[in-house]
């Protein structure tokens, strides 16, 4: 406020000097009214400036101080968030490495499980194939035995027919009838 008053006084003095130099014609009465008018105007402006400007400057200073404090708070908050993001990013690399290791273990375990499952299935298929081969072998041997027996019976029948004469037939029928009695 003192500065405003000092400024107003200096302004009045400078204006007075300017008027004094510009009006040397001798019309002093008009000059006095100009000075009075100027002093009244300068005084009124000084009074208004002294009343209005200090509260305006104070409120503006407070608003600037408040804005600076808010900016500092926002800056600290942003720095904290940035530090948290940095911490998370540092942790992400470790998490990614852990996930890769875990997925590698799971893949290895799955491969082993599938390998053992495939081996078990192969063993089942081989056992079933061996049973089917054994059954087919038994069926083939049985069929072969039947075929061989059939051939042997045919051969025996042919031999018997070739040796069979009516006298031999007669003797066989008599022996059979005797056994029946």
Report the uncertain regions: none
Give the end-to-end Cα distance, rounded to a whole number of Å. 165 Å
Number of domains: 1
> Which shape, going by the Cα principal axes?
rod-shaped
Characterize the biggest β-sheet.
Answer: none
What's the arrangement of secondary structure elements?
Blueprint: H1 2-22, H2 28-163, H3 166-180
Can you characterise this structure?
95% of the residues lie in helices and 0% in strands. The radius of gyration is 65 Å and the shape is rod-shaped. It has 181 residues and is mostly helical. It contains three helices and no strands. The N and C termini lie far apart (165 Å). Helix 1 (2-22) packs across helix 2 (28-163). It has one domain.
List keywords for this structure.
0% strand; single chain; 181 residues; mainly alpha
In brief:
Helix content is 95%, strand content 0%. By secondary structure, the chain is mainly α.
